[in-house]
From TrEMBL:
<keyword id="KW-0902">Two-component regulatory system</keyword>
<keyword id="KW-0963">Cytoplasm</keyword>
<keyword id="KW-0805">Transcription regulation</keyword>
<dbReference type="Pfam" id="PF00072">
    <property type="entry name" value="Response_reg"/>
</dbReference>
<feature type="domain" description="HTH araC/xylS-type">
    <location>
        <begin position="164"/>
        <end position="264"/>
    </location>
</feature>
<dbReference type="InterPro" id="IPR011006">
    <property type="entry name" value="CheY-like_superfamily"/>
</dbReference>
<feature type="domain" description="Response regulatory">
    <location>
        <begin position="2"/>
        <end position="119"/>
    </location>
</feature>
<dbReference type="InterPro" id="IPR018060">
    <property type="entry name" value="HTH_AraC"/>
</dbReference>
<dbReference type="Pfam" id="PF12833">
    <property type="entry name" value="HTH_18"/>
</dbReference>
<feature type="modified residue" description="4-aspartylphosphate">
    <location>
        <position position="54"/>
    </location>
</feature>
<keyword id="KW-0597">Phosphoprotein</keyword>
<comment type="function">
    <text>May play the central regulatory role in sporulation. It may be an element of the effector pathway responsible for the activation of sporulation genes in response to nutritional stress. Spo0A may act in concert with spo0H (a sigma factor) to control the expression of some genes that are critical to the sporulation process.</text>
</comment>
<dbReference type="InterPro" id="IPR051552">
    <property type="entry name" value="HptR"/>
</dbReference>
<dbReference type="GO" id="GO:0043565">
    <property type="term" value="F:sequence-specific DNA binding"/>
</dbReference>
<dbReference type="GO" id="GO:0005737">
    <property type="term" value="C:cytoplasm"/>
</dbReference>
<dbReference type="GO" id="GO:0003700">
    <property type="term" value="F:DNA-binding transcription factor activity"/>
</dbReference>
<keyword id="KW-0238">DNA-binding</keyword>
Length: 271
């Protein structure tokens, strides 16, 4: 992992270099530059993973420099440093997917936390890239044996449970009738094809199967607790939207229609 520090104030630049436990964070190289123009040149030459940059510098400010760097280095992470609370600069930092924005005087602990966040994001991308390579290799019949869990680098473990995260998101949003594979893929920044492959590989069922199962389980419990409810209301609350489709899927899964299930509950509740 390589870091580029662009800071025109020598005292701040040297202080950051000396106070941060770079090696403990897994950072093997720290390159410095004194202004935006030099920072741009060093970035294109060194290709750092993380760039820490002062916002206001002579010759070229940090935001302008970062936009130029982003044209070439698509995945590097930016951490901006400034003594100015300028909302416009903050908006630009957000557009650049900046991990953090640190105000001067710089606190080493804040720098460490920002670096950790950047490293975590980069490691997640590496894991996804590796799994996508495996996916496309398998499509082309080129894949070798999938590595066992203990052969996967420790730095990848933070993103090992992406399928679990997909499940968690579905459990929290299943009632949204607009929830779809496209929405999920966009949310997790994955291609839809790769996301479906990954999920089925780890969970042995498709995402749509899990979504339908989750909605039906909730619908059944909701009817059990509210036997006077209307079927259309159940369909809407469970995310099916289309009442006819809900009835069809429920009957296929439970071998009984929602209406018959509700009737059985109502009869059982009678004295």
């Amino acid at each position: 992992m390589k870091v580029l520090l662009v800071e025109d104030e020598e005292l701040t630049r040297d202080g950051i270099c000396m106070c941060i436990p770079w090696e403990k964070l897994g950072i093997s190289s720290v390159v410095t530059a004194e202004d935006g123009e030099e920072g741009l040149a060093r970035a294109l030459e060194e290709k750092p993973d993380i760039i820490m940059a002062d916002v206001r510098m002579p010759r070229m400010d940090g935001i302008t420099m970062a936009f130029e760097i982003r044209k070439v280095l698509k995945r590097c992470r930016f951490i901006f440093i400034s003594g100015y609370c300028d909302k416009e600069y903050l908006k630009s930092a957000i557009r650049l997917s900046a991990v953090n924005y640190i105000e001067k005087p710089v606190e080493p602990s804040e720098v460490v936390e920002a670096l950790k966040a950047s490293i975590l994001q980069l490691e997640k991308e590496k894991r996804r890239d590796a799994m996508e390579e495996e996916y496309y290799a398998r499509l082309n019949g080129l894949a070798e044996e999938v590595p066992s869990e203990d052969q996967i680098p420790q730095s990848w473990t933070s993103s090992m449970h992406l399928a679990d995260k997909i499940e968690k998101y579905i459990r929290e949003h299943f009632s949204d009738p607009d929830l779809s594979l496209t929405l999920l893929a966009d949310h997790f920044s994955l291609s839809k094809q790769y996301m479906c492959w990954l999920y089925k590989k780890e969970k042995q069922e498709t995402i749509n199967q899990f979504l339908t199962r989750t909605r039906l389980k909730w619908a059944k419990e909701y009817m059990r607790r509210n036997p006077q409810v209307k079927i259309k209301q159940v369909a809407e609350k469970s995310g099916f939207g289309d009442c006819s489709y809900f009835i069809k899927i429920y009957k296929k899964q439970e071998q009984i229609t929602p209406a018959d299930f509700l009737n059985s509950l109502r009869q059982g509740a009678q004295p």
